[in-house]
Amino acid sequence: MPIQFDHVSYTYSTGTPYEYKALNDVCLDIEEGKITAVIGMTGSGKSTLVQHLNALLLPEKGVVRILDRTITAGEKPKNLKSLRGRVGLVFQFPEYQLFEETVLKDVAFGPKNFGIPEAEAIERAKKAMAMVGLETRHYEKSPLEMSGGQKRRAAIAGILAMDPEVLVLDEPTAGLDPYGTVSMMSLFSRLNREMKKTILIVTHDMEQVFTYCDNVVVVENGTIRASMSVQEFFKDSSYCKEMNILPPALIRMKEQLIEAGFEIGEDVMDIDRLAEAVARQVKKHG
């Protein structure tokens, strides 16, 4: 069953001079069990959209359906705590999530808050920290002493420790070096493949979208511009160009080869098949 937004609207600071309509009549289905990228220009409504998934924001109009829950505008949802245990949200700025004396206590806070005994919560925290590459020497550090990348890892570990069914990540690799980025994205991919977790990633990085994601949602001015598979989205670079985003290197190379006279099929979406297509044509005309 998909995650659904049914005619959802949301306005910030209603009735004030700062009133701003962030979502406007959004209708969207998000496939469970897949990795979905949410992309769009700054201020398009991406973060507002994903914050509805665990009822951090409630719809002003419309209905949000996720897992076995229905959140309807004008109705106060019940038992939000259980929903937030099943839908984990990692904020764009990790400082919003880190507040305990030590990193280990911070990561263990979520499980403890949901009734997990302290000893088990600590073990979950240690396992989650290992998953994101935080070593034992970080256990007793203050979150305030950590680098930006380490804070991001700690914030992600705090959500992973709760073992949510749906993982929502807002710019999860910002501040990480290239190795850390690949490591983190590979972790999310394994969580999806091996543990069947539904994952949504807000990102500007088209290489990540192309390499790791199944589907793409394009948000524009508080509406859904497009929702489709990654293969369909990257058939050409038109969407990226319209948003002033650099397409993935493989797509750029493919388009340059087509401009040079090579015949490259739409279904060629990896470097090995691209190399084979070029080699065949070079051999034929060489």
Describe what this molecule looks like in 3D.
- With 286 residues, the protein is of the alpha/beta class.
- The protein folds into two domains: 3-247, Rossmann fold, CATH 3.40.50.300; 248-286, no CATH class.
- The chain is 38% helix and 22% strand.
- The chain is built from eleven helices and ten strands.
- It has helices spanning 46-50, 80-86, 103-113, 118-131, 148-160, 178-195, 206-212, 230-233, 238-242, 249-259, 271-285, and strands spanning 3-12, 20-30, 35-39, 61-66, 69-72, 87-90, 166-170, 198-202, 215-220, 223-229.
- Strands 6-7-8-3-9-10 form a six-stranded mixed beta sheet.
- Strand 4 (61-66) and strand 5 form a beta hairpin.
- It starts with a strand and ends with a helix.
Task: State the main characteristics.
alpha/beta; four-stranded antiparallel β-sheet; 22% strand; Rossmann fold; 2 domains
Q: What is the CATH third-level topology name of the largest domain? A: Rossmann fold
Low-confidence stretches: none
Biggest beta-sheet profile: 6 strands, mixed
User: How many beta-strand runs?
Assistant: 10
Strand numbers in spatial order across the main sheet: 6-7-8-3-9-10
How would the global form be characterised?
Answer: globular
Q: What would CATH call the class of the largest domain?
A: Alpha Beta
Give the radius of gyration. Answer: 21 Å
Relative strand content: 15-25%
What is the chain-wise order of helices and strands? EEEHEEHEHHHEHEHEEHHHH
Number of helices: 11
In CATH, the homologous superfamily of the largest domain goes by the name P-loop containing nucleotide triphosphate hydrolases
Instruction: Calculate the terminal CA-CA distance, rounded to whole Å.
Output: 52 Å
